[in-house]
Amino acid sequence: MFQDLDEKKKQLDEKRPLPAFTLKSLKEKLLLEWTFHSNAIEGNTLTLKETKVVLEGITVGGKTMREHLEVINHREAIQYVEEIVTKGEPLSEWQIKNIHRLVLKGIDDEYAGVYRDQQVFISGAEHTPPEPVLLKEKMEELVAWYEGEAQQLHPVERAAQLHVIFVGIHPFVDGNGRTSRLLLNLELMKSGYPPIIIKAEKRLAYYSALDKAHTTNEVHDFIEMVKSEVSETLDLYLSTVT
């Protein structure tokens, strides 16, 4: 199921260490696109070029403070994810809350890094997340699954499943989508894969695959979507070093 990805990753690993400037430019490209698309999926109206400008410290006229903060916060969250990978820290609730705290910093400080205390619904989805009273238990189950059963899965499947389970729980009032994609890439990066970009134009297929996973327990479509994006990113890396 993952043979093609394993072969591409093997080819990339054989090329390591990548040239320093090449690696730097790839990381900058992916950071920009990851930030732009992850925010765009959630309704941020900044264009790719405007997102780049905001990352460079310039304010874009006609855009809200929240949209600017979403860009700056996302970059900080990516930097934190990279730090976790470098240190080899295991997944924990504390870590997940820290990622979320960075995502919502200055936007909604009351709920940044704090599990929701009210019921929420996912717009356009059939699945209804669990009641607030169940969140602590559900998040503990997520970490227990990760530490146990998940370790038997291929890294790409494990990353996809982590995203699916987290979004199904929807533990925060806001910022669950961005946090889930950060967790997805955190897991991929831990296993030596480059981060992937789920593009805003694929939003409908992305949401449909997630809702199918939550309502039928059929995760094939979502795993296939993640596999496709992993393959695309590996191709990008390989194209720069062959």
TrEMBL record:
Give residues annotated as binding ATP.
174-181, 206-207
Active site, renumbered: 170
- List residue numbers at the site (Important for autoinhibition of adenylyltransferase activity): 42
* Molecular function terms from GO: ATP binding
* InterPro entries, sorted: Fido (IPR003812), Fido-like_dom_sf (IPR036597), Fido_containing (IPR040198)
Which UniProt keywords are listed?
ATP-binding, Nucleotide-binding
Q: Give a single Pfam family match.
A: Fic
Is the keyword Ubl conjugation in the record? no
Limits of the Fido domain = 91-228
Glycosyltransferase is among the record's keywords: no
What's the protein here called?
Cell filamentation protein Fic
